[in-house]
Amino acid sequence: MAIIRLGLLSDIKQARYVIHLSDKKRLVLFRLPVINPAKNDRAANETDDGWTYYAMEAECPHAGGPLQDSQVDIEDSAYVVSCPWHAYDFNVETGESSVGIKACTFPVNVRGEYVTVQYMPDNGADVSLVKFEPVSEKFKLKRGTGEDKTLPKLEELSLATQPEAGPAKYLDENATLCDWCAHILNTAHPEHKIELTAHLFSTFTEKERSSSPMPLGRGTVSPPAKPPREGLSEVQPWKMPKPGRGGTLKSRIAMLHSLANVELWAIDLAVDICIRFATFQTDPASQGFSQELPRAFFHDWLKVANDEAKHFSLLRARLEEMGSSFGALPVHHGLWESATMTAHDLRARICIIALVHEARGLDVNPMTIEKFRNAGDDESVQSLEVIHNDEITHVTTGHRWLSWICQEEGTDPVHVFRNNVRKYFKGNIREPFNAEARAQAGLDSRYYEAFQGVAA
């Protein structure tokens, strides 16, 4: 049995950390509020100020999903985490799940000055700590100069410089999910959009755990045909200037600016799928009855929107650190054209946006990251790695809900995907493919090999 010292208790303040060990294994440490504080003796993993610490393997035992990105809930007075890939649930203390498989958990001790974890290495080998890495949940928001608004409860919040616009407009407590989605889509200022998106996800998640969940408001409000933009110079996609290869500061700024534009549209796409398809029901032709979308669908896509807001905030802040700003270069709105083409069918929307565009990001992200690494731009690399890891879970979300629809309708998700790509995707789906990241997200080679869309 090895006792791994993670660090000073006073320094461990974030909600999640990844523990990298010398035997190539990874664990995840959760820092969570004590559910039922003991009146007398506290457990070895509890602190006097009301926090409790748990450690478990970082890869889901079902398919290797990243448990550091899991959803945390309370069931029967215990914390349960749900894998972001396939929603397998695990008790963080015992590792037990409702589906019969079990995750490895490891005792944590916070008595004294240091946090330690007990770890049993294979074959009794010596094991040491290589890296203790906080899981990024950082938003870099700009606060308005007017009335102060309560920001979402985030694990870490970094406030940058003051914006030119005033405060974001918040809806009242009676607003439905669709009210909020329409409001976010109609919000032109990017700082307000990311702030409101983070607020909606935080509020929706918090109310899901209560006896009064947020009303969905299915079909009560319509989304805009195209979300407005503020202060941006728009050009056609084929007229965008080439960003270069990342060897110069100018080139890296152009690359980050282009990615920031994609992330801003990605917020709208994830929010739009919640409101535009709120009344969707599965085709009853094969099963004899139809199903409406469960509430988990809306939570999953709000989580995607929240991640995209985080990504935009990181990229926008990095642009400013490099002496530029978002809006300093022209942008194109080509991604929304795919949304318009698939506005009539949820299956097509998931296929094109999540399983083509997002999956293509998995293919090119490592090459982009390497360009910045070769240029010695470690600050940008850190942000881009956060984005890449999150986007694996976004493709997983698309795959999960396309699979759910197909299961309800008695169809084959691979066939449905390829059929929709032939109809609605302009251009070819071609190598290189990041087969490992695609497989992590649930996309095996049947989805994308030897395949192309309609002629551009």
UniProtKB/TrEMBL annotation:
One Pfam match: Rieske_4
rRNA-binding recorded as keyword: no
Region feature Disordered, mapped onto this chain: 207-244
Entry's Gene Ontology molecular function annotations: 2 iron, 2 sulfur cluster binding; metal ion binding
Domain of life according to the entry: Eukaryota
Protein name: Rieske domain-containing protein
Entry keyword set: 2Fe-2S, Iron, Iron-sulfur, Metal-binding
Statement: the UniProt record of this protein carries the keyword GTP-binding: no
Domain Rieske: 16-117
